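dumping this here before i forget
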Amino acid sequence: MPSTRDIRRRIKSVKNTSQITKAMQMVAASKMRRAQQAALAGRPYANLMNQVLAEVTAGAGDFNHPLINPGKGSKRAVIVVSSDKGLCGGLNSNLFREVTKIDTKETVYISAGRKAAQFLARSKSDLAAEFSYKDAPEFAEARAISKMAQEMFIKGEVSGVDILFTNFVTTLEQHPELRTFLPVGEIKGIEAGIEGESSQKELERSQVEFLFEPNAGDVLGNLLPHYLNFQMYQILLESKASEHSARMVAMKNATDNAKQIIKDLTLEYNKLRQAMITNELLEITSAAMALG
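structure:
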């Protein structure tokens, strides 16, 4: 049975831990609000871009572009977007569980985030490049990742590019998702679109006729790289919103568990202390009765 000193030390240790997790919870909650606002703010622009693409492709005719044609490589590239830090519950574990389902022999990986790079290195996967991005992702960071993926695809090094990331749904719900990045599939329906996308029927409701200079094909050719860059940027925003949400919930659960442990230890300490006092009283009473 532990002594009262041991229990006091453990209570003090758990209290210190709860203070740390409480501070981390508050920091994560602050970052979570900004990350969620950034992710949600990008969705209307994504929706508008999908509508513009739908209008342009409607007048592009037999449009041909390297980003639309099937790739020539023997392997497929997967961009794995993770967090840089841990302590965010099962966020990265769920993501890496999906990575293990991919055939490693037929895949080359690109990591975005330190945790993804570490996991791919441990699993001895074919890691082509490592990228990092800030707590508030910048468009230039997304463009660098997207540009490398586009170059590998156009050069024929890979047959296609997928993105594996954690999609933000709500503060309590985030899901790993594997999304096709290249080639841009079903361009007329924008079925490979980004968050905020509308269905093909909704996009085709517009009866307004647009004129494009010099022509719809050239406009679409210049628009596609930007479309892919913004798709990558929106995915980074979704991943960051998921990370901070998961970390806030994990730290809140840790703080609540620490409080419960302190409550249980305090009860155990009081019971042990009460038993010691009772024993001392019995010893004093017995001694007094013996002396008569």
